[in-house]
Amino acid sequence: MSRKLLLEHINIPGINTLEVYRQKGGYRAVEKALKTLTPEEIVEEVKKSGLRGRGGAGFPTGMKWSFLAKPEGVARYLVCNADESEPGTFKDRYLMTYIPHALIEGMIVSSFALGAKVSYIYVRGEMMPQIRILEKAIAEAKAAGWLGKNILGTGYDLELYVQPGGGAYICGEETALLESLEGKRGNPRIKPPFPAIAGLYGCPTVVNNVESIAAVVPIINDGGDEYAKIGIGRSTGTKLISASGNLVKPGVYEIELGLPVEEFIYSDEYCGGIANGKRLKATVAGGSSVPILPANLTLKYANGEPRLMSYESLSEGGFATGTMMGSGGFIAFDEDQCIVRNTWNFSRFYHHESCGQCSPCREGTGWMEKVLHKIEHGHGSMEDVDLLWDIQRKIEGNTICPLGDAAAWPVASAIRHFRDEFEWHIKEPVKSQSQNYGIANYATPIEKAPVTEEK
Amino acid sequence: MLKVEEQTPVVFSSELLAKFDDVKSRYPEGKHKSALLPLLHLVQAEYLWVSTPAMDKVAEYLNIQPIEVYEVATFYTMYFLKPQGKYALEVCRTGPCCLVGAEKILSHLENKLGVKEGEVTADGLFSFRGVECLAACGFGPVLQISPEYTFYENLTEASVDKLIEDLKNKS
């Protein structure tokens, strides 16, 4: 069994209440931080831990904190990004549902470290049940003196509020989130200035993912050095992985970074293999935005070495043969799944969620969706595949925020690794409506030849 | 698209206005526009949709221009700009849920309720639509029902049938 730092007590009845959470050692980190550490020392511990942002970008959290401007007489804010909307990712919802106090404890310690007197948890609007859970937990914590004025008699004041979103994926981008929190449309801002200089209401602001903030609790309890001992290389600590798709046991798993991908998929401790005795065809390892990989490249590098669940190992080989850790949304596709249909589905998602600010993304995502719809429904031509490649290249890197890249990568990687399946849809417009292309030559062991016919 | 058709004036109850005041108190002086999204949720929970006169009232309450409310209400997908069924069913239709049968659930709902996506049943009880990822991918297919946004996970055609019967009996 690997070490659990965030989900250790997940199965204990009543862990969602302050009483049980306290019995299990909860709020120790707040006592330690507020009574024995200075804000600078906390930032230093987080730096030493090597914790990297768990929302997707993987930027070192301690470094992000150290960039926060501290002008005299200007309020500073901590905003928790709980706008979890990346297809394939549901870890934050899980954490907030079952252990809301872990997030609140992390928010208190982090707010103290950053000098914030008012902090917000921006939760996506669809998660109304989680908003109710958090508000109840905040009320409990406040009644017990963990929030409000003069916490633990240290003179530190903190108010914590939950803000609902309105159902827009783009608000997971930190500057769009801040716009939304200010009561506006979620249009990402041009950076610089970065939020650390001018964020919420123009004040210095740190925006962190739910899991990053919750991870601050064990870092303060055990020390940054202890946290950094877990994991592999620059991928320190544990990570919550949301496993979905055609798996025997989909769900949220806490892994020590560095776990072999093969063990994660097939061992009974984790996903337990592919559902219904089928074979693995492909995976999206870090949420819908990251490149899709065929089964063989998911499990091993191009040179045959095993691939691990870590930031570096998942991206080994670049986009040619690798992918990304992203937010840890691990989606598994069995042999019956159609890559073209899934790529079309993801494109529709990005088209739907594009804020419309930048033309390459606004026009390009819709264009890709239409072309993919055409191919999927048996009306495609060979030129369409090249057209798709051309469109995605013109979106990537040409937009204010990363949504453009996120829309381009799934299309690019699907064509890169599964071009023969796209071409089969075009050459077999009738057959492709009732049959699937199958596993072809993507997976090991190779048992079935491609269905494509001779030209 | 926002259509200004509905003109029935809206008067917010004192209970609702008290909730408004509570939300407004969460933000620093002069930054009360931050309350806009939560306020629209409160309006929708009360009326089951957000009409233009209601938006105008919200603008008046926050002392901002009506257009500032319209642009937000049309940007975010959760706000219903026309009346829905008493139970508005929203089924996730994004990739991971489709891998485990979300499309079948959507077409089953269409048959079961006898209305198309976005329409309301004759008894006014139900409407449904497909929505993008609800962050419950490991428990798919999933649907949520506004205004409480209760989640129903691991859906099958049978469990959807049962859910609809239960809701019918409840009302």
TrEMBL record, chain A:
Residue ranges of every copy of the NADH-ubiquinone oxidoreductase 51kDa subunit iron-sulphur binding domain listed in the record: 340-385
Family that this chain belongs to: Belongs to the complex I 51 kDa subunit family.
EC number from the UniProt entry: 7.1.1.-
One Pfam family of this chain: NADH_4Fe-4S
UniProt function note: NDH-1 shuttles electrons from NADH, via FMN and iron-sulfur (Fe-S) centers, to quinones in the respiratory chain.
Top EC class for this record: translocase
Keywords, in A-Z order: 4Fe-4S, Flavoprotein, FMN, Iron, Iron-sulfur, Metal-binding, NAD, Oxidoreductase, Quinone, Translocase
Entry annotated with the keyword Metal-binding: yes
Domain of life: Bacteria
Chemical reaction(s) catalysed: a quinone + NADH + 5 H(+)(in) = a quinol + NAD(+) + 4 H(+)(out)
GO terms assigned for molecular function: 4 iron, 4 sulfur cluster binding; FMN binding; metal ion binding; NAD binding; NADH dehydrogenase (ubiquinone) activity; oxidoreductase activity; quinone binding
The keyword ATP-binding appears for this protein: no
Organism: Pedobacter kyonggii
InterPro entries linked to this entry: NADH-UbQ_OxRdtase_51kDa_CS (IPR001949), NADH-UbQ_OxRdtase_suF (IPR011537), Nuo51_FMN-bd (IPR011538), Nuo51_FMN-bd_sf (IPR037225), Nuop51_4Fe4S-bd (IPR019575), Nuop51_4Fe4S-bd_sf (IPR037207)
Protein name: NADH-quinone oxidoreductase subunit F
Cofactors that this protein relies on: FMN; [4Fe-4S] cluster
UniProtKB/TrEMBL annotation, chain B:
Annotated binding of [2Fe-2S] cluster, by residue: 92, 97, 133, 137
Keywords, comma-separated and alphabetical: 2Fe-2S, Iron, Iron-sulfur, Metal-binding
SUPFAM superfamilies the UniProt entry points to: Thioredoxin-like (SSF52833)
Methyltransferase in keyword set: no
Statement: the UniProt record of this protein carries the keyword Metal-binding: yes
CDD domains according to UniProt: TRX_Fd_NuoE
Cofactor comment text: Binds 1 [2Fe-2S] cluster.
Spans traversing the lipid bilayer: none
GO MF assignments: 2 iron, 2 sulfur cluster binding; metal ion binding; NADH dehydrogenase activity
Cofactor(s) named in the record: [2Fe-2S] cluster
PANTHER family named in the record: NADH DEHYDROGENASE [UBIQUINONE] FLAVOPROTEIN 2, MITOCHONDRIAL, NADH DEHYDROGENASE UBIQUINONE FLAVOPROTEIN 2, MITOCHONDRIAL
UniProt family annotation: Belongs to the complex I 24 kDa subunit family.
Protein name: NADH-quinone oxidoreductase subunit E
